[in-house]
């Protein structure tokens, strides 16, 4: 019981720490899919899938808000900015409501709708309408009042027949009545009624399904789901215009009405006379899909489903400018690769059974020098479903992308130059679907120390291939170790110090291959066959102690020494047994593991399919971090990939709802002590973090003394960076002053002396 209490306390402290230490996290989100927009006096506010940004029309200042600042990773469905209260309200599909206070920058999460005893699929927030300090929140079950002064919810109105739930798409205030466009008619109620929670106060005045309703000065306009625009005539709504497509949005701003359809924006004056019509070809191309539109002064802002936010002059046919913050093409990043100078991301995908059913056409993204380069599908030589990307460690300008349908794409100097497929290389198409079906499924890829690129070619007889530095392809007979090679899919490849290739498979566990020995071995399910919990292996990684870490769909295993490949006929992996609550249990028991990566201090970062990220100690006995959507800026617990910048220690975590990075301290060790540096320096009053001493060599001894030579801290580096909490051996914080840092190599052959100033 005592352990449980301490765990809860530690978890609370961990959550508080991350809330306070936002500098440890950075977001890399796509803002391309605009869900909703709202306008202020001088700015527009745009909501993408799970992030928010604003553009000031006067200063052109662009501001972003993501999970790092406190937003949820769930999908946004509506946004509204109250100019009078200086608050922005964000609504989500799951019913969460977040209030952003512009005056002090605070974020307040309201879970009242989430906590309602209703089916989860009825809690989506569709629209906000402000009137007299109250916001009427349209939801898929009814209407909820929200008080902008107190930031508290009020009454809930279930306005369907006999008080049942009904999907309310939008509300409007007109001549003292509240009107609601619903999935079952337009309903209205007298706003002065003392009993609006009584469903009988909300009679239907029109039948049918309605998508929107809006007040335009002296007019009340509504649109049904077939795109027929109606005008209210004091008793009922009468149709008078038919759109060619159903509308996606309608709103009244500054005496004008903006009606959005997927390919056209219609702007009407307050007499319902068309004053401007904008097609998607005028903005970009006929492939563009509009989601919403509004205006600030003479600027019209148009949200799109795939290319972000555009703006142009409302009164003339100006050129439209893209106002979207730079980011990756989309949030569902499937795989990344990281070098000291760049980050690459790809978006291909496959399901649980390795079926690339979504043959995406999203291209490839690169982040370097604080800027994004998005290579569109039109430039990747028709490579579909790109699932992996790897940078040549000896030449950062050479990159290879694995397509799980089209082959292997070569990229040089950021330009796709060649696609290896079954017609021009040693790669092969699967044959189980018939002679006219061509499908080259390349996934895991890794460079060996000689610069050769090893790749896996799934669902063929011999799917282990190598592209030599000479440009020649070679195939190895992996079918000799597989039970059914034409039905086998491969995950990733790890190469150890002996040049043994370790390959995860879908049906045969882990296969090891050593080229010099010309030998295949495998570990699979069962105590006598390798001791894996399942044959489906999704991740393999070799650590600095020559252990092989194996992530499966049902847990974790570790091969104690990769050298066993040469000495043992049957390799065997074992679980890591930890003790919690005085009970022995298996680390990550039954977890679906998607990624494993080893940092410079030999810690393991482990991604899962539904439980976020675990960072465990070198031997796995201590879980140092467990990041989830509840205690960190992680936007989703579905982790697709993890990679680490070896120079900075930054850990990049790609999920199905966006990518974030955690600025860890475990950098790779340096070759010498010439680049040792300390940060922050000086340590100023109020600083609550740790001092980092970076640029170290492995096993370096670090001693810290005060100016008189009294020792206050001593440690040995595991990797390239250590932390000091500015205390004297953890007992008390040291006083203001200059502190000496003495660094020595393990053999004493190299030393370095640095200083750090602490100001209390």
From TrEMBL:
User: Where in the sequence is the signal peptide annotated?
Assistant: 1-21
For this UniProt record, the keywords arranged alphabetically read as follows: Signal
InterPro entries per record: PorZ_N, Secre_tail, WD40/YVTN_repeat-like_dom_sf
Q: Which residues form the PorZ N-terminal beta-propeller domain?
A: 44-202
Name-wise, this protein is T9SS type A sorting domain-containing protein
What is the originating organism of this protein? Flavobacterium geliluteum
């Amino acid at each position: 019981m005592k352990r449980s209490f301490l765990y809860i306390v530690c978890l609370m402290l961990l959550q508080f720490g991350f809330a306070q230490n936002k500098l440890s996290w950075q977001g890399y989100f796509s803002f391309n899919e605009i869900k909703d927009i709202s306008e202020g006096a001088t700015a527009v506010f745009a909501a993408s899938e799970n992030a928010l940004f604003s553009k000031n029309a006067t200063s052109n200042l662009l501001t972003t808000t993501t999970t790092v600042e406190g937003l949820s990773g769930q999908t946004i469905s509506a946004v509204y900015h109250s100019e009078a209260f200086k608050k922005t309200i964000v609504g989500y599909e799951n019913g969460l409501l977040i209030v952003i206070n512009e005056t002090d920058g605070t974020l307040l999460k309201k879970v009242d709708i989430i906590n309602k005893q209703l089916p989860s699929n009825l809690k989506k927030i569709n629209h906000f309408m402000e009137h007299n300090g109250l916001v009427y929140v349209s939801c898929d079950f009814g209407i909820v009042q929200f008080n902008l002064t107190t930031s508290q919810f009020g009454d809930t109105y279930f306005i369907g027949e006999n008080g049942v739930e009904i999907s309310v798409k939008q509300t409007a205030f007109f001549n003292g009545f509240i009107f609601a466009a619903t999935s079952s008619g337009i309903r209205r109620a007298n706003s002065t009624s003392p009993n609006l929670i009584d469903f009988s106060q909300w009679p239907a005045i029109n039948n049918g399904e309605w998508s929107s309703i809006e007040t335009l000065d002296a007019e009340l306009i509504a649109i049904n789901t077939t795109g027929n625009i109606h005008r209210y005539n004091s008793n009922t709504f009468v149709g008078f215009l038919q759109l060619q497509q159903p509308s996606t949005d309608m709103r009244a701003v500054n005496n004008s009405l903006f009606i959005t359809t997927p390919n056209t924006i219609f702007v009407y004056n307050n007499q319902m006379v068309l004053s401007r019509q904008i097609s998607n070809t005028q903005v970009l191309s006929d492939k563009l899909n509009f989601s919403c539109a509004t205006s600030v002064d003479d600027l019209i802002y148009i949200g799109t489903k795939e290319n972000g936010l555009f703006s142009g002059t409302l009164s003339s046919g100006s050129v439209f400018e893209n106002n979207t913050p730079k980011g990756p093409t989309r949030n569902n990043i499937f795989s990344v690769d990281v070098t000291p100078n760049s980050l690459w991301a790809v978006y291909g995908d496959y399901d649980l059974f390795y079926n690339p059913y979504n043959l995406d056409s999203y291209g490839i993204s690169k982040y370097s020098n604080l800027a994004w380069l998005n290579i569109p599908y039109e430039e990747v030589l028709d490579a579909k479903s790109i699932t992996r990307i790897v940078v040549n460690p000896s030449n950062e300008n050479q990159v290879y992308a694995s397509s799980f349908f089209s082959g292997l794409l070569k990229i040089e100097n950021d330009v796709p130059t060649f696609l290896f497929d079954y017609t021009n290389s040693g790669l092969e198409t699967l044959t189980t679907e018939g002679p006219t079906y061509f499908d080259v499924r390349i996934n895991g890829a890794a460079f060996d120390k000689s610069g050769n690129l090893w790749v896996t070619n799934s669902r063929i007889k011999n799917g282990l291939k190598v592209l030599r530095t000479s440009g020649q392809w070679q195939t190895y007979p992996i079918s000799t170790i597989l039970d059914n090679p034409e039905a086998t899919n491969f995950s990733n490849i790890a190469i150890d110090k002996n040049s043994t290739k370790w390959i995860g498979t879908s049906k045969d566990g882990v296969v090891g291959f050593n080229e010099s020995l010309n030998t295949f071995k495998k570990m699979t399910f069962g105590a006598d066959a390798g001791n894996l919990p399942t044959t489906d292996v999704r991740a393999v990684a070799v650590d600095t102690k020559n252990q092989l870490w194996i992530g499966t769909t049902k847990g974790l295993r570790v091969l104690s020494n990769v050298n066993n490949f040469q000495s043992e006929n049957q390799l065997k992996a074992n679980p890591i047994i930890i003790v919690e609550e005085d009970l022995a249990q298996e680390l990550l028991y039954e977890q679906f593991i998607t990624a494993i990566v080893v940092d410079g201090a030999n810690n393991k970062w482990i991604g899962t399919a539904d439980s976020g990220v675990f960072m465990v100690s070198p031997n796995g006995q201590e879980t140092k971090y467990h990041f989830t959507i509840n205690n960190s800026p992680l936007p989703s617990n579905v982790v697709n990939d993890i990679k680490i910048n070896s120079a900075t220690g930054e850990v990049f975590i790609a999920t199905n709802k966006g990518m974030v990075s955690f600025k860890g301290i475990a950098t790779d060790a340096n070759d010498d002590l010439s680049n040792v540096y300390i940060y922050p320096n000086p340590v100023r009053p109020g600083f609550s973090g740790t001092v980092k001493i970076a640029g170290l060599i492995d096993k370096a001894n670090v001693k810290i003394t005060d100016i008189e030579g009294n020792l206050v801290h001593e440690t040995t580096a595991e990797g390239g960076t250590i932390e000091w909490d500015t205390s004297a051996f953890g007992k008390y914080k040291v006083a203001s002053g200059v502190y000496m840092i003495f660094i020595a190599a393990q053999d004493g052959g190299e030393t370095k002396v640095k200083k750090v100033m602490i100001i209390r």
